[in-house]
Amino acid sequence: MSKIAVVYWSGTGNTEAMANEVAEGAKAAGAEVDVLTASEFGADKMDAYDAVAFGCPAMGAEELEDSEFEPMFSDCEGKLGGKKIALFGSYGWGDGEWMRTWEETCKADGAVLACESVLANEAPDDEAVAACQALGKALC
Ligand SMILES: Cc1cc2nc3c(=O)[nH]c(=O)nc-3n(C[C@H](O)[C@H](O)[C@H](O)COP(=O)(O)O)c2cc1C
């Protein structure tokens, strides 16, 4: 059985709702899943999981949230080589630039992106919910 971590930051609950759907998808596919906030995760926990889903909304000016998520993620970057991961997050008025930048960072770190990243405009609609569940399944 694969062990999967869903690690997220969310200010107003949209990315949290996505994280819960990712977890549901992975559980339905038979994985053991831990859902953790950014402050509950770090590089020292990476080896305990077969795959990790990272979720963070667009913050700052098309950036990762900089007080909790970005420091945690930077910490994990040294452990991303060959690691199966997937990215998700909610955004507001932008065009998804934060996610494209984030994907490039992960590829440069040698991460194996299991599927297309999932973006939701504000609260996830039915399509985004289904995509989050499929993301969770893709990590199994
Ligand atoms: C301080 C701040 C900065 C933001 N910056 C961006 C941005 O650069 N691009 C964008 O598309 N949305 C931006 N947003 C909108 C959020 O990404 C959006 O509301 C998202 O749904 C929040 O997700 P959450 O509920 O998981 O916190 C920003 C929101 C806040 C509060």
UniProtKB/TrEMBL annotation:
Cofactor(s) demanded: FMN
Superkingdom field: Bacteria
Keyword Electron transport among record annotations: yes
SUPFAM superfamilies documented for this protein: Flavoproteins (SSF52218)
InterPro entries reported in the protein's UniProt record: Flav_short, Flavodoxin/NO_synth, Flavodoxin_CS, Flavoprotein-like_sf
One Pfam assignment: Flavodoxin_1
GO molecular function: electron transfer activity; FMN binding; oxidoreductase activity, acting on NAD(P)H
Domain Flavodoxin-like: 4-140
Keyword terms: Electron transport, Flavoprotein, FMN, Transport
Family: Belongs to the flavodoxin family.
Function: Low-potential electron donor to a number of redox enzymes.
Protein name (Swiss-Prot/TrEMBL): Flavodoxin
